[in-house]
Amino acid sequence: MNNEEMKNKLKEFFMSDLGVDGSVLNFDTPLFGDEIGLDSVDSLEIISFVDENFGVSMTGVGKDPFQSIDTIAAFIESHKA
Amino acid sequence: MKVAIVTGSSKGIGKACALRLARDGYTVVVNYSSSDEAALQTLDQIKAEGGDGMVYKANVAELAQVKQMVRDVYKAYGRIDVLVNNAGIVRDEYLLMMNPETLDKCFDLNVKGYFYCAQQVAVKMFKQKSGVIVNMSSVSSKFALAGQAVYSATKGAVNSLTQTLAKELGGYGIRVNAVAPGFISTEMIEAIPEETRKGYLEKVPLHRFGTADEVANLVSAIVSDQFAYVTGQVFVMDGGLSL
Description:
The complex is a heterodimer. Chain A is mostly helical. Chain A has a single domain (3-79), classed as Non-ribosomal Peptide Synthetase Peptidyl Carrier Protein, Chain A, CATH 1.10.1200. Chain A is 49% helix and 0% strand. Chain A contains three helices and no strands. Chain A is globular and about 35 Å long. By secondary structure, chain B is an alpha/beta fold. Chain B has eight helices and nine strands. Chain B has helices at residues 12-23, 36-48, 63-77, 100-128, 149-169, 187-190, 194-203, 212-223; strands spanning 2-6, 26-32, 52-57, 82-85, 131-136, 174-181, 184-185, 210-211, 234-237. Classes of the chains: A mainly alpha, B alpha/beta.
């Protein structure tokens, strides 16, 4: 899966599982800001999805990798086995 | 099959919890950090009683080791139902004598270790939409004893962590509670001079020390479905000491 496909898969997950409106969700949109409004509880959903679908653990890595789809994809890319 | 991880379960209260949960039908992961022999003895006893499980050496104060342990346990059994956060240390020092190393060591194991284990198992429990975490606190978190500032502070942190995690994880079917034992007959208590022990006993309305098995019985009850509607609570078990 290339980087673009990975980002699209993440975007699909945010729309279908977390109920984010796709029309306002770009790859660089802040996920935890006012616009999207995810909270700390949603981070567990994200971590679980990434763990299950990409085999990458995002626990204990701080907030920075969760900023946007771009940063999550970059984290996955750099931590893939 | 249901799977329980009990940290620091090669001896004392942790061992009693591991044995009890095995008797309850759990496959038990006997986590330990130093004594291979004691951990293997715990597992042998579990197996002799018809139970099953594994020993796993990991220092829970180290995130990388906790991650590896949880990953390996999940790989081996495919689920994690119960975490008993029990591994901890006591280093009693009066405030003015306390050194930074003591502070770091106690917080690393008694607090950070609990965070790391809860964090890692929560991801697995989230997938199952069920799970129970029991944090071993202490009556010291509620009843001040001179010289226990560090230990008390770490256990106070455990109580707050318990309540916060109960709120964060409750929506996913994960319950989080704590047990706060008082004076329990373990090697730690046995090592105290007779005279001091007598002094402690005078403060306990039930006039005896508790047993590790009694703590394990409470943990067993908390993780059972009988307590399915209970989360975020700190259960004091101290023979009345804190009254």
